[in-house]
Every structure is written in structure tokens, then in C-alpha cells.
Amino acid sequence: MDALRKEAFYTIDDIYALPDGERAELIDGQIYYMAPPSRTHQRLSMFLSSAILAHIREKGGDCEVYAAPFAVFLNDDDVNYVEPDISVICDTSKLDEKGCHGAPDWVIEIVSPSSRSMDYFTKLFKYRTAGVREYWVVDSHRKTVTVYQFEQDQMNEYAFGESVPVGIYEGFSITVS
User: Fold this and answer.
1) For residues 105 and 30, what is the distance between their CA atoms, to the nearest angstrom?
2) End-to-end Cα, the chain, rounded Å
3) Whole-prediction pTM value?
4) What's the maximum distance between 2 C-alpha atoms anywhere in the chain?
5) CA distances from 163 to 46, 159, 166, 173 (A)
6) How many other C-beta atoms can be found within 10 angstroms of the C-beta atom of residue 172?
7) pLDDT at site 164
8) ∠ CA(68), CA(52), CA(44), 5° rounding?
9) How far is it, in rounded angstroms, from Cα 110 to Cα 47?
10) How would you write the chain as a 3-class SS string?
11) How many CB atoms lie under 10 A from the CB of residue 44?
12) From residue 38, how far is each of 7, 20, 95, 106, 108 by CA, in Å?
């Protein structure tokens, strides 16, 4: 009988029906519940968001920076919904009051113990195929920043304390510690 059972398939309506305070992402119709972020996670998120925002303001850029929770509807469908830790969107026509409709230019995920395989594998594939230009995986346990520059088909890894160049902004780098 188990072979005849169908796997549950969810939509964005199911995400919006979650109880208040419960966070989850939806990838290809599967719900992935999210644990609350740690203090280290929040510290890294605030540091990175602030550095990016300061650079954009200093250069007079049009891109916008959003920290989680912020809705990103990656594809034009109702089975993919993510909340990247940090999203940088340069095409502001993708933005409305619900979030970002389409791929952000730059996504940063900060690895949590429960999100490791999701950040390094599942989201890597989804972000690349959706059209994200640059994807960073910040891993405080390994003390590394893995940078995927999809347009150049490059991947580089940096240790905390090293200057990490930002591919979508020439001449901008961030030192994560």
C-alpha cells in the first residue's frame, strides 16, 4: 500500500496558511520548515546587510537590500518561495509589497546546522537556474565564504578574515569575520 501513497505537494497558498511566526520555504512543491536563527547568524546577517547597504548608498546605486524574512518568488509559478538571508535586487520592477518576483541579483545564505545541505546543494541549483547572478554561502562553522559567480561560471572559497570581492559591484569587497 505504501507504494501507492502520493507525496504531498504544496503551493504558496500553503505557505501563507502557516500559523503566525512559523517560517518555511517552498521548493518544487515541498515545504522546508526553518529553525529560528542563532545569534551568530543574526550578527553576520546584520554585518553583511549593513556593509552592502552602505556601499550602495555611497555609490548612489539603485539596488535594494533585504534581510530575511523577505519573500522571493523565484519562478513564475506557485510552487517555489524562498526567504534568502540577504537579497540584493537591482531591477526594482521585480519588487512589490509581497516581495521579489524573479531572481535577485545577489543572494547570501548564512549556513545553520539544519540548513547545510539546503544551502550548499538545493538552493545552489535553484538560484542558478532561476537567474541569480551571484550566490554566497557564509559558513560560520567552517569559517568560509563560498562565492558562486554564475555569469562567469566560477566558484571561489575564502576564509573568514580574507577580503571577498563582490562580483556584481566592481571594486567592492567585504571582509567577513
Assistant:
1) 24
2) 52
3) 0.94
4) 62
5) 18, 9, 10, 6
6) 16
7) 98
8) 55
9) 12
10) CHHHCCCCCCCHHHHHCCCCCCCEEEECCEEEECCCCCHHHHHHHHHHHHHHHHHHHHHCCCCEEEECCCCEECCCCCCCEECCCEEEECCHHHEECCEEECCCCEEEEECCCCCHHHHHHHHHHHHHHHCCCEEEEEECCCCEEEEEEHHHCEEEEEECCCEEECCCCCCCEEECC
11) 24
12) 31, 20, 28, 23, 16
Quote the cell numbers at residue 20.
503566525
| The three grid cell numbers given for residue 8, joined into one nine-digit string | 504531498
Per-residue pLDDT of the chain (177 residues; tens, 9 = 90+): 455 555 689 999 999 999 998 999 999 999 999 999 999 999 999 999 999 999 999 998 899 999 999 999 999 899 999 999 999 999 999 999 999 999 999 999 999 988 899 999 999 999 999 999 999 999 999 999 999 999 999 999 999 999 999 999 999 999 999
